[in-house]
Amino acid sequence: MTESTATPEPITLATIAAKLDALLASRAAPPQRYLGVKASATYSDLSEDTIRRLVERGDLTAHRPVKGKVLIDKQQLDRLILGSTRVPQRGRGRR
């Protein structure tokens, strides 16, 4: 009887990094499209009250999948921010 005496491949830092990258890529979460009011405020650097006001005015559409939960479409929020071209008349932001 002969035994196979194959030596295992040495583990290198590059091998570990490649395996870790493959594992992380397989588990990566898809980008989140809908945000809650607090997350929308953090994302856009606006206050939660401003987000609620934009929903109340109809500038943003609020989706309510369950009672008590309000979701904002991140793409709509991006369009609103990029489409705002109002120049401040006085006060902060005016030079």
Summarize the structure in short.
The chain is mostly helical. Helix content is about 45%, strand content about 10%.
Write structural notes for this entry.
The mean pLDDT is 86. This protein has 95 residues and is mainly alpha-helical. β2 and β3 form a beta hairpin. It is 45% helix and 8% strand. The termini are far apart. The chain is elongated, with a radius of gyration of 25 Å. The longest helix is centred in the N-terminal third of the chain and has 15 residues, at 13-27.
Q: Please give the number of β-strands.
A: 3
Radius of gyration: 25 Å
Sheet of most strands: 3 strands, antiparallel
Strand order of the largest sheet: 1-3-2
Identify the overall geometry. elongated
Could you give the distance between the termini? 89 Å
Give the class from helix and strand content and strand pairing.
mainly alpha
Strand percent estimate: 5-15%
Mean pLDDT: 86
Please report the number of helical segments: 4
List the uncertain runs.
none
N-to-C SSE series? Answer: HEHHEEH
Q: Helix content range of the residues, please?
A: 40-55%
What is the strand and helix layout of this fold?
Layout: H1 13-27, E1 34-36, H2 37-44, H3 48-57, E2 62-63, E3 71-73, H4 74-83
Antiparallel strand pairs: 1-3, 2-3
Helix pairs in contact: 2-3
